[in-house]
Design a protein that fits this description.
This protein has 175 residues and is of the alpha/beta class. It has one domain: Structural Genomics Hypothetical 15.5 Kd Protein In mrcA-pckA Intergenic Region, Chain A (Roll), CATH 3.10.290. Helix content is 38%, strand content 22%. The strands form three sheets. It has a four-stranded mixed sheet. β2 and β3 form a beta hairpin. Pfam families: Ribosomal_S8e.
């Protein structure tokens, strides 16, 4: 009886999306994801979900875009010090400044109101700077054929960041 059951799906990350249809007991169907490149991830504290690319971590671009639209703040952008900005202008380099879209007074009031309650964890802001977020896949890709999950925050994020730092430290010590 221990030999019953199917092989695991062992879902891999690849741009060539492969999902197989599997007939199971009772004539029902399961979707076995063998290769995936995107997933639907939710950001719990902001109550927002976006479809994003899966790397070995999650691509931050869709969440950055939402944050900019919702709060009017561009997170993850490197802050230039005034001296460096002045030096660049003196050299005559044409900086690619994104054109500011004119907003109605209603939208500006709404953004200002949201700004008052806005708070962003420093660890998450740091990850936005790199353009990649740590996330957990909570769905079962071998059963439902999708990779859905949530962005790590708070204590859970700190725990995994410590684990990753420890792992990096070991690798550097051995090399």
């Amino acid at each position: 009886r221990y030999e019953l059951g199917r092989q695991p799906a062992n879902t891999k990350l690849s741009s060539n999306k492969t999902v197989r249809r599997v007939r199971v007991r009772g004539g029902n169907v399961k979707w076995r994801a063998l290769r995936l490149d995107t997933g639907n991830f939710s950001w719990g504290s902001e109550a927002v979900t976006r479809k994003t690319r899966l790397l070995d971590v999650v691509d931050a671009a869709p969440f950055k875009q939402w944050y900019l639209q919702h709060y009017g703040v561009d997170i993850g952008r490197k802050k230039k010090n005034p001296a460096a900005a002045a030096a660049a202008k003196k050299e005559g380099e044409a900086e690619a400044v994104p054109e500011e879209v004119k907003k109605s007074s209603h939208v500006t009031r709404k953004l200002e109101k949201r700004q008052q309650t806005r708070q962003l964890d420093s660890h998450i802001e740091e990850q936005f700077g790199g353009g990649r977020l740590l996330a957990c896949i909570s769905s079962r890709p071998g059963q439902c054929g999708r990779a859905d999950g949530y962005i790590l925050e708070g204590k859970e994020l700190e725990f995994y960041m410590k684990k990753l730092q420890k792992k990096k430290g070991k690798g550097a010590g051995a090399a």
